[in-house]
Backbone:
């Protein structure tokens, strides 16, 4: 069983306009589509599609329209009853292919909601292999929310392995306090975690320099503060840093259609490989395959095993001491 917690879910409303967006004017929409969004929900969608048991946890008002959309995903869910409504994130698409996104703040959780969400996560994690904590934390719970969840879950003798995919202060606190078994930052999130501002420098413009920089920065985290780090690099692929070494994998050749959910799918691919008993190199390969499959699918569609690209994905072992990673053409 793989349990996911989406602390700050969103109802994703995509509005297709009949003409190019004109601020300040009244315009007609040709269609509207609503999806149950949320990073943990996405991870669970990919896991369900692979035929592996999962449970998605969400703080949710039982009368919230989000509950109906969540049911339609077919993902087994358990909600912690809270008072507030799930936020709506709005995407305006126009015929020119421009997408304008407006993200609303989440509903504020009370102290009682916070306590109930932690208790429900502890109960649902009993006997699970992995717990995935994914996405931003909602207003009201504080940046130490995920760290408190991890502490509470690990009080049980058979606690699951714990993966965290979040950013900013919430990620910093988890890494500082709770040594998660896996984190899944992208390059910008890793840079921020390492106090390097918004971007990893690298010594030059090629992928080999970026990968070397990820390995250098990641070595300060793994294995001391984090068990493993899956650092995704968008269209360039991903790096896995683990106790036994570091690996890089480039994506297969695909036509990128919508990268929404790519990071969540990578994380699902990693965890699916891990529960199947795969070692680090194969976990990374599966993560890249899943991320790239998501990027090749339209909208918020999450990949099934049948959607995985057939092109080769090969993890290359990296040598930490070298400035140019072994096996990558500069
Ligand atoms: N344009 C692309 N072409 C091929 N593969 C891609 C592309 N964009 C993303 N991917 C795949 O998806 C994985 C995750 O992408 P990315 O690093 O953008 O995640 P992310 O920034 O966490 O995304 P999000 O949090 O928005 O889902 C990459 O490692 C890669 O395998
Ligand atoms: Mg991400």
Residues:
């Amino acid at each position: 069983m793989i349990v996911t917690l989406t602390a700050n879910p969103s109802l994703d409303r995509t509005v297709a306009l009949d003409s190019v967006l004109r601020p300040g004017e009244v315009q007609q929409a040709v269609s509207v589509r609503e999806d149950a969004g949320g990073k943990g929900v996405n991870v669970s969608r990919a896991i369900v599609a692979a035929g592996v048991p999962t449970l998605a946890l969400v703080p949710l008002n039982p009368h919230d329209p989000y509950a109906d959309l969540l049911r339609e995903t077919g993902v087994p869910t358990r909600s912690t009853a809270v008072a507030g409504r799930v936020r709506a994130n709005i995407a305006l698409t126009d015929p020119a292919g421009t997408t304008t996104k407006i993200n609303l703040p989440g509903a504020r959780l009370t102290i009682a909601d916070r306590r109930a969400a932690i208790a429900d996560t502890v109960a649902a994690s009993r006997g699970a292999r992995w717990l995935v904590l994914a996405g931003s934390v909602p207003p009201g719970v504080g940046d130490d929310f995920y760290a408190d969840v991890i502490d509470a879950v690990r009080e049980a003798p058979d606690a699951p392995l714990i993966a965290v995919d979040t950013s900013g202060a919430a990620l910093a606190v988890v890494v500082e306090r709770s040594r998660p078994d896996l984190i899944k930052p992208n390059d910008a999130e890793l840079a921020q975690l390492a106090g390097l501002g918004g971007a990893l420098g690298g010594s030059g413009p090629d992928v080999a320099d970026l990968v070397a920089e990820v390995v250098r920065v990641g070595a300060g985290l793994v294995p001391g503060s984090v068990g493993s780090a899956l650092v995704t690099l968008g269209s360039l692929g991903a790096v896995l840093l683990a106790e036994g070494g570091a690996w890089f994998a480039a994506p297969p050749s695909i036509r990128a259609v919508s990268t929404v959910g790519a990071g969540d799918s990578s994380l699902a691919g990693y965890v699916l490989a891990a529960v199947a008993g795969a070692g680090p190199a194969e976990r990374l390969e599966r993560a890249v395959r899943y991320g790239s499959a998501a990027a090749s699918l339209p909208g918020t569609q999450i990949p099934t095993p049948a959607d995985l690209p057939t092109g080769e994905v090969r993890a290359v072992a990296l040598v930490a001491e070298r400035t140019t990673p072994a096996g990558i053409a500069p």
Summary: Residues 280-296 form the longest helix (17 residues). The domain at 181-330 is CATH 3.40.1190.20 (UDP-N-acetylmuramoyl-L-alanine:D-glutamate ligase).
